[in-house]
Amino acid sequence: MAVVRSAEYTQFLSKGFFLTDARGRYGGAHAFLAEKYLSQELQNFEKILGQNHWQVFGLKVHLMDVLCVCKRVNDAMDISKQLKASTEMFSASNVQRISAEQILAGFYKLQNNWVEAEDLLRGSKSALETELGPMHLMTIRTWKFLADLYINWGKFDRAENELKQLVPFAQRSLHGDHHLTYQIVNSYADVLEHQNKVEAAQEMRALQQGKGDETNQGILMALGDEYERGCSARVDRRFDEAEKILSRVMLESEKLTRQSRGTRRNQCTDLYDMATKGLALTLFGQDKLKEAENLQRDLLARMIARNHPLDDARLDIMDDLAFTLECEKKLYEAEKLQLEVRKGRADVLGPVHEKTTSSRKRLAAIFRAQGRNSEAESEYKAIIDACEQRLGLYHIQTLKEAKALASFYRGIPRGLKLADEAFIKAIEISRNVLGAYSEETLDLADERAAVLELDGRVEEAEELLEYTKRDLLRYFGPDHEATKNVIEHLEDIKSGN
After folding, report:
1. Residue 72 CB partners (closer than 8 Å, separation 6+)
2. Which CATH number fits the domain that encloses residue 425?
3. Percent helix, strand and coil across the chain, each rounded to 5?
4. Which regions span the lipid bilayer (predicted)?
5. Is residue 231 over pLDDT 80?
6. How many domains does the chain have?
7. Across all residues in the chain, what is the average pLDDT?
């Protein structure tokens, strides 16, 4: 029996089981596929290794993360309860346990369940202090995680208390210009400023600057971490926090650029550019379009002035600016710039690269906004061709683009016949990618029926809806939203509405 189990285990490994970053396989936009993959692997390994094995525990950690991305909060909560119970299997200093507890705390934070997150991190910090001591790196990192929780919670007095105790340990345990020390001291100064203790904050920053005069490497690394934190806040739509962080990174990296030479200066310049780009996107997310445009124009002008090549980074800035201009209805300038981006990306990255197709999507939207449907159609077709070449016909991204083309045809004059053909193709792709009876495939059938109805082919629409209704009732039941929508659509057709 042990030999059989070992053979099964080896077989799963040879298949590439241990791809815990399942989103790496399917892409961040398709987390539902990653969830399906991880759930299946979890079942397989629970069967082979049992529920208490460390690899099973690790899979659950990543599955909960993916469930959060899928916004399946109840399922994620179930996994979190299992994880919380399982952490007792590991010592307080076990890396997997620490990772799981921090992911759990982050999950609780997303649910505004601050007390649960606090209890988890306080327990983790206390156990690490006992087992490893307060000056150990893992203790310091967990301690900082707790302080950050209080800051996000708005409990600045508690954050101040934790950071006040943490700073001396970090300074003694790590060298003065270590990026983590810099980050901790900076957080402490921010908290002091937030509570109007301005002089104390200035003293703390001055002390930190003095310790970092020997080398700017630690400060640069800390600013890099701050930049990542600002980007995470932007992605989570915490725009005020992101704006504050990225503005500070811009300011500090600009200072470092002036103080540095050679390779270090180039690193500082790169960080300054990235922070500017991130801040512009943050302002865009707040509908501060003119401010975003000004930042993007300034950044592009700086890159051109220092003879930055027409590479991926410069093309990204041009793309951001073109999209901002499009949203400001400056369509002529947006089109001109986006055409440059499309050509540049085709030359630098290749004509079928995903960024090149992204430029085509933006151009299609610009053409549609001007009523230039034939030019928009050419872009949509080129996008699908590129996806088929890069990924194959039966791929989730190809399906997405096929749906976009069908929707485009449905919205233009005399486009219903073309829309029907496009929906037939999209349904075929969906059947092969997601299955004949998946919700997505059946939704597409409902959309095709709407096109048939608009085209006057009412009997065909009714027949298609009857089949779709039957499948939805069989696989999803009468209470599912998609089932209700199809039944309502069918009743409208039968009643002549």
Report:
1. 35
2. 1.25.40.10
3. 80, 0, 20
4. none
5. yes
6. 1
7. 83
CA atoms lying within 13 Å on the CB side of residue 359: 29
- How far apart are the C-alpha atoms of 179 and 63, rounded to whole Å? 31
**DSSP code for 174:** S
Domain that holds residue 455: 407-497
For residue 479, give the DSSP letter: T
Please tell me the distance from the alpha carbon of residue 421 to that of residue 386, in angstroms, as a whole number: 19
462: in domain: yes
Look at the chain and count its residues. 497
How far apart CA 422 and CA 440 sit, in angstroms, is 15
- Residue 465 inside a domain? The answer is yes
Q: What is the DSSP string of 436-496?
A: TTSHHHHHHHHHHHHHHHHTT-HHHHHHHHHHHHHHHHHHT-TTSHHHHHHHHHHHHHHHT
pLDDT in the model for residue 314:
92
pLDDT in tens, 117-144: 888 888 888 878 887 788 888 888 888 9
Residue that is written with structure tokens 């649960």 in the block:
116
Query: Which of 14-28, 42-56, 149-163 is most confident?
Result: 149-163
pLDDT band at 107 (very low <50, low <70, confident <90, very high): confident
Residue 322 lies in a domain: no
Residue of 284, 364, 286 whose CA lies nearest to 325:
284
For residues 80-110, one letter each, b for 16 or more C-beta atoms within 10 angstroms of the residue's C-beta and e for the rest, the string is: beebeebbeebebbbebbbebbbbbbebbbe
Asked whether residue 275 is assigned to any structural domain, the reply reads no
- Tokens representing residue 102 in the block: 């921090």
pTM of the model: 0.59
Query: pLDDT tens for residues 419-436?
Result: 999 999 999 999 998 888
Beta strand ranges found along 60-133 (DSSP E): none
Structure tokens at 473: 């009732």
C-alpha to C-alpha distance for 407 and 133, rounded to whole angstroms: 61
What pLDDT digit, counting tens, does each position of 355-408 carry?
999 999 999 999 999 999 999 999 999 999 999 999 999 999 999 999 999 999
